[in-house]
Amino acid sequence: MPAEVDSLRKPCIGVTIVPKTRFWHNKSKEAMMIKTVIFDVGGVLIRTEDRTPRRKLEQRLGLQPGESEVLVFNEKVGNAAQLGKITSAELWGWVQQKLGLDDAGVAQFQQEFFGGDRLNTSLMAYIRSLRPAYQTAIISNAGDNLNRVITEIYPIADAFDLVVGSAYEGVMKPDAEIFKRTLTRLGRRAEETVFVDDFAHNVDAARALGMHAVHYTPATDVPAVFAQLGVVPPG
Questions:
Q1: Which residue range forms the structural domain that includes residue 148?
Q2: What is the domain count for the chain?
Q3: Least crowded by CB within 10 Å, which of 34, 40, 50, 141?
Q4: Cis peptide before 53 (omega within 30 of 0)
Q5: Is 228 helix (H, G, I), strand (E, B) or coil?
């Protein structure tokens, strides 16, 4: 995903499994009255569909396969950026220094690193179809330029009533606090929401609070899963 972006096991009553998709829901009538759908960004709304540019980048720089992703996302510096302790610009400055790149080199690194990223257009079309019958929201572990990413690079911000980014909050998924803040701002109870994320530990954290949760994979049919939860587009 663009440089700036892009992430507790206590089910209440039942677990339902659909092929290649894991999701949980409380089967009570009250719990099925979902009013808000919440999505992760990286890995769900914006996906790295082709990793060839990253592998070529790594070969060119003499890095091991996957090492570029560790540098950008998983080092302590990357986590610091997602927590808002440093800016995204400072993160890329660190990558530049780590790899001994000049300004043009780090710009090329970013272009190649995110060269295989694509917007999940079908999922976005579905999300838009749910409005205004359902509230829509984002919870993303992302740097301080998440807003620029979803307004300028991938213009999807208008499809969401609330955007909660970890760098702005100083807290990351799977910390329960970021979910609690989101629920408060939406004015919803946990059982009135469903959360979609590609990391199981984030899904588990949402479940622990009583939220419905879907563990997203490329094979996940979100409309079908949501329909089983009673969420369907209006009309």
A1: 14-47+118-228
A2: 2
A3: 50
A4: no
A5: helix
Say how many CA atoms lie within 13 Å of 89 toward its Cβ: 1
| pTM greater than 0.70 (yes/no) | yes
Q: Which long-range contacts (CB under 8 A, 24 or more apart) does 221-226 make?
A: 221/18, 221/21, 222/123, 222/126, 222/196, 223/126, 224/18, 225/18, 225/21, 225/23, 226/37, 226/194
User: What does residue 36 show for φ and ψ, rounded to 5 degrees?
Assistant: -140, 135
Helix (H) or strand (E) holding 175: none
* Res. 32 pLDDT band, cuts 50 70 90: low
| Angstrom distance (rounded) from CA 223 to CA 231 | 8
**6 domain residue, yes or no:** no
* pLDDT, tens digit (0-9, with 9 covering 90-100), for 152-174: 999 999 999 999 999 999 999 99
CB distance 40 to 196 below 8 Å: yes
Q: What letter does residue 42 receive in the DSSP assignment?
A: B
- Structure token digits, residue 174: 């799977």
Domain boundary pick from 113, 134, 168: 113
Decide if 88 is inside a domain: yes
Amino acid occupying residue 68: S
